[in-house]
Design goal:
This protein is α/β, with parallel strands linked by helices. It contains twelve helices and twelve strands.
Length: 397
């Protein structure tokens, strides 16, 4: 089975095509035939954060060219002899893409010159995320589905992050293998989803069976990283810069006690929820009291901030594991690319003698592969899909 994955939940435009073999999650493998990703980070950096309408515009501009490149990379792009398209088909595509500036013209030019590709299903992110951005991907997927009569699978972005952690690259003689197996997940499992928009603890009793048991009350952890970076005068995206400063401080001053202690919000609460707004505010008040914010002080505050975040995440996750007697820790989302977070959660899993799953760093951020894989697992699990669905910014698991 060949599946087209489409991801436009925020500021990454992702298109991929995977080929799958097997009929059950315990024995199937996937091969990435084509994978294209366009990041808008440089565009949004000049404004200090993601602008939803700019993200929407860039998705609309880039989806069709990326799709063509992905087809070519996958060896699925075949030129057709007759470029004619029935006017009724044009009208249907135009109606679907009426709100996506310029996409109708681009897509018509493409489908006029190529045959229907050998694709069995289309998996598209329909939430959560920035709703204007999500709609571009959803409408693009609906247009392809309508024109080529390909089944469409609305896919949850957060489920994609969870399942990305289960991909295990097949080691073979090829230097850059694109073949993967699904790792065995011992259930029940706890998934910690950490990104710019989410901080969630999810209990997974089995494949595709989720219960959100902890959530952020305010800022998501990735959002807190970016806001603290801005307070320290660092440019967007600030998360990686904070982590780099923190790592430098650990190397240069491994045993130094911080001069700028920060709180660990909700660490002793009886629930499994999070709050990072107060931690961000504590950094702001700390910085206001410092006459001169030197590079050395920024470095020290960055480390203390990251230590505070880590302590809260680890404590809450450990509590969830003990409460639900889980056998696996999964972490996913953009912030899971953080080196220190990976190290500490690996240590926690080893200490508790349970499994630890985390995606490759390159697969931690938003991408279309995780959406295609999630779509496929939903198909073989027998899930029924709504043909009339919409983008939902606040979609939950």
């Amino acid at each position: 089975m060949k599946i087209l994955g489409i991801e436009t939940s925020c500021d990454e435009t992702g298109i991929c095509i995977i080929e799958t073999t097997g009929n059950d999650v315990s024995d199937f493998s996937i091969k990435i035939l084509g994978n294209q990703l366009y990041s808008q980070v440089a565009l949004h950096a000049q404004y200090g954060g993601v602008f939803p309408m700019m993200a929407k515009r860039e998705h609309a501009k880039n989806l069709v060219p990326l799709f063509e490149k992905c087809l070519e990379e996958s060896n699925l792009l075949k030129r057709k002899m007759d470029p004619r398209i029935h006017e009724d088909d044009k009208s249907k595509i135009k109606e679907i893409l009426v709100r996506e500036s310029g996409m109708y013209e681009q897509l018509i030019q493409l489908v006029e010159k190529i045959e229907k590709p050998d694709i069995d299903a289309i998996a598209v992110t329909n939430g959560p995320g920035l709703e204007p951005a999500l709609w571009v991907g959803v409408n693009f997927a609906k247009a392809l589905s309508e024109y080529w009569s390909i089944p469409l699978i609305p896919t949850n972005h957060m489920e994609g992050h969870i399942l990305a952690a289960s991909l295990d690259q097949i080691k073979n003689s090829e230097p850059h293998s694109n073949q993967f197996l699904i790792k065995e997940i011992k259930f029940p499992a706890i998934a910690l989803l950490i990104s710019g928009g989410h901080t969630q603890l999810v209990l997974a009793e089995d494949w595709l069976q989720y219960e959100i048991i902890g959530n952020t009350k305010d800022d998501a952890v990735g959002e807190a990283y970016d806001k603290v970076a801005r307070i320290l005068g660092l440019t967007y995206p600030g998360g990686p810069k904070i982590s780099k400063l923190a790592e430098k401080e650990r190397l240069e001053n491994p045993s130094k006690k911080t001069s700028y202690p920060l709180p660990r919000p909700m660490i002793h609460s009886k629930d499994l929820d999070f709050s990072f707004s107060g931690l961000k505010t504590a950094v702001l008040y700390t910085v206001k009291k410092i006459p001169e914010l030197t590079d050395a002080i920024k470095q020290e505050i960055a480390k203390e901030f990251e230590d505070a975040v880590l302590e809260v995440l680890l404590t809450k996750t450990k509590s969830a594991i003990e409460k639900y007697n889980t056998k696996t820790i999964i972490i996913g989302g953009g912030v899971s690319a953080n080196k220190k977070i990976r190290e500490k959660f690996a240590e926690l899993a080893k200490k508790l003698e349970i499994d630890f799953l985390v995606p490759e760093v390159s697969a931690s951020t938003d991408n279309a592969v995780m959406i295609a894989v999630a779509g496929f697992i939903n198909i073989i699990s027998g899930k029924k899909f709504e043909t009339e669905f919409k983008a939902q910014g606040n979609l939950t698991l």
